[in-house]
């Protein structure tokens, strides 16, 4: 969408009737887009509402009505700010494979294509346009001190609460390095991923990365834990045909 206002005149809306307003978003760059949908309602017969706006009236009310010359309310406004956050196409999965009861540290390089320079796309302060900020890390990942400093938010998201409960204590992720190529507008983020599975499994997660200048990237991760090594081999010698042979061994619980 564009920063333009389009007028849809002559729409008649009856009592309790609903009006759907389609909004089409076709971003061309990885930056934040802003626009406003304004709905202006007036009486069909052209009459005004008798309510008069005065200096003592509520500030929010004054902003959301249009006033006729005699001070009566001519129309009512509904104003909906819309913030568009472009999302990059789905990326290929990164496989993290580790044997159960072992610990793996793996460096993962993720390429963010089409990052806009911050000098031209820094959003207005105080008017946050972050997508799902509650789900993303609140820690801005700063910075190399260069003129082209960019900040990123990232988090590991799971497909269900069940998968989260299985992986949350087994997986760790930390951004350790960032490289910014101004010519190609590609940012390379290098993460250190730790995987310490306790049993064989195969689960999926997604690294969600958001640039504060605009843009959202998602990178699927596949966590595979293979069978652990055999703890020990138990040999039982027969003492004779049709006679029992017994051997004892201890099992230690890893939890309380």
UniProtKB/TrEMBL annotation:
<dbReference type="GO" id="GO:0005929">
    <property type="term" value="C:cilium"/>
</dbReference>
<protein>
    <submittedName>
        <fullName>CFA47 protein</fullName>
    </submittedName>
</protein>
<dbReference type="Pfam" id="PF26579">
    <property type="entry name" value="Ig_CFAP47"/>
</dbReference>
<dbReference type="InterPro" id="IPR058952">
    <property type="entry name" value="Ig_CFAP47"/>
</dbReference>
<feature type="domain" description="CFAP47-like immunoglobulin-like">
    <location>
        <begin position="87"/>
        <end position="226"/>
    </location>
</feature>
<dbReference type="GO" id="GO:0007288">
    <property type="term" value="P:sperm axoneme assembly"/>
</dbReference>
């Amino acid at each position: 969408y564009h920063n333009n206002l389009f007028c849809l005149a002559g729409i008649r809306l009856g009592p309790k009737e609903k009006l759907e307003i389609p909004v089409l978003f076709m971003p061309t760059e990885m930056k934040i887009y802003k626009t406003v949908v304004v709905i202006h309602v007036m009486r069909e017969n052209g009459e005004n509402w008798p309510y008069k706006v005065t200096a003592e009236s509520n500030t929010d009310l004054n902003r959301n009505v249009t006033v006729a010359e005699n001070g009566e309310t001519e129309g009512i406004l509904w104003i909906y700010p819309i913030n568009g956050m472009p999302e990059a196409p789905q990326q290929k999965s990164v496989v993290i494979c580790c044997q159960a009861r072992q610990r793996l540290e793996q460096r993962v390089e993720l390429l963010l294509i089409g990052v806009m320079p911050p000098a031209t796309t820094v959003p207005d302060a105080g008017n946050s346009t972050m997508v799902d900020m509650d789900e993303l890390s609140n820690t801005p990942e700063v910075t190399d001190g260069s003129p082209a400093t960019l900040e990123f938010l990232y988090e590991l998201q799971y497909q269900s609460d069940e998968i989260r409960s299985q992986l949350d204590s087994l997986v760790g992720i930390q951004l350790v390095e960032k490289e910014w190529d101004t010519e190609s507008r590609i940012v390379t983020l290098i993460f250190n991923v730790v995987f310490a599975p306790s049993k064989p499994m195969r689960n999926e997660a997604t690294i969600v990365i958001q640039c504060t200048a605009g843009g959202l990237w998602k990178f699927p991760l596949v966590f595979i834990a293979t069978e652990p090594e055999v703890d020990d081999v138990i040999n039982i010698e027969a003492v004779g045909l049709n006679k029992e042979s017994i051997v004892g061994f201890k099992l230690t619980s890893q939890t309380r």
